Amino acid sequence: MTGTSCAAGRSLVLEPAAATRRQPPTAARRQFTCSQPLSPAWQRSSRGSTPVRLQVLCSAAPLQQQQQQQQPSRPPPVGAPMAAAMGQPKEPSTEGDVLIEFKDVWKSFGSKSILRGATFKVRRGEAVGIIGSSGTGKSTTLRLAAGLLQPDRGEVLIKGEPRRGLISDDDTSDKLKVGLVFQSGALFDSLTVGENVGFMLYEHTKLPVPKIKELVAESLGKVGLSGVELLYPSELSGGMKKRTALARAIVRDEQHDNVEQVIMYDEPTAGLDPVASTVIEDLIRDMHEKHGEGRHQKQQGAQPQQVAGQQAAGVGGTLGGSPAVGYGLSVTDKQPQASATQPLPGGITSYVVVTHQHSTIRRAVDRIIFLHEGRVVWEGSVDEFDTTEEPIVRQFASGSLQGPIKYE
Ligand SMILES: Nc1ncnc2c1ncn2[C@@H]1O[C@H](COP(=O)(O)OP(=O)(O)OP(=O)(O)O)[C@@H](O)[C@H]1O
């Protein structure tokens, strides 16, 4: 991922003094820094009187219905996109309401054309992987979906409604929250784990500090990191940082508990060893089961039956099932759901993972979207990914130097 802002989610305008006003004591004494450089667009001096504008939190980003901005004219097509020659990728057979839709989305940075007509849908209940060669616009796609960028042309539809602007402090829509977990985690180095995870709650709610701490502990418990609130990011392993970022993305904001959520993970397992990767992959899957598709409540008279992962939802618990050695986390095997249940509102009902890792594709993804030269050139299930004769997919899967994917 290149050129990222510090984090995604609600944007905040933090003046140095204001930034500390509603923080817990330790945060109040510390200057905000970020483990990831801010993009120039958001960067301002944290000294002096200029407000520091940060996109904070890799977290649930509320949709905004802002004034439609004038869009620049369509950029000229650069080169001959592969997709044109390949025809349109087939529509996924998955049923379900469309939560996020890209319709002929174009995005350039300066003279560099990155997305060139990207079109795809993410439906309720889906676990989608976006793959493709480096620099083809995968992270840009996530940032567009999360509202950190605007398309030059085309539409990003959220539950059928166009996203009209960048995320701002105006919280006008409670239809769908789109959370983004950056590759680096984008944790604030100068804040503790607890302060990082609870940052949004400290900044955007009037919840009392003890309540926020309770919610933070709950969230950390869900990712198998109970009791690390007082550590700093520099004291965490790479896998723990990623889990902390995940805890921050899923921390409960009780005011929006019923709002449906899609989480987008940008290379969540990059740089991790195979076992740590498995932990993250299963966690991503388990969060979905437990906080979205698996969220069911018993109807009257139903037989008591545990819903997948439900036992792990308590504060400070591990995720039940067999332990994942050395990582303090275990993941629940999927169980059949009670027949006499009805869905609970809210929760993580879909997720999207950008990844280069085969293990992540196999373990955390059901449907793959293949992006090449800024367009979707192939879509299919993980099984179809293994069997398709599509040359670009076969080259990607095998890592061969021969084929349509060229590196300069
Ligand atoms: N904010 C930005 N300003 C200028 N150029 C950018 C910006 N963000 C991305 N780019 C350009 O867009 C290209 C695509 O970036 P993006 O991160 O979306 O690719 P990617 O497919 O995720 O790549 P990778 O797999 O290597 O992470 C990059 O090569 C970069 O040059």
Automatic annotation (TrEMBL):
Protein name: ABC transporter domain-containing protein
Pfam families the record matches: ABC_tran (PF00005)
Domain ABC transporter: residue ranges: 100-398
Organism: Chlorella vulgaris (Green alga)
SMART domains reported in the protein's UniProt record: AAA (SM00382)
UniProt entry tagged with the keyword Nuclease: no
Region (Disordered) residue spans: 1-48, 63-94, 290-315
Compositional bias per record (Low complexity), positions renumbered to this chain: 16-31, 299-313
Comp. bias (Polar residues): 32-48
Domain of life the protein comes from: Eukaryota
GO function term, MF aspect, one: ATP hydrolysis activity
Keywords of this entry: ATP-binding, Nucleotide-binding, Transport
Gene3D superfamilies with a match to the protein in the record: P-loop containing nucleotide triphosphate hydrolases
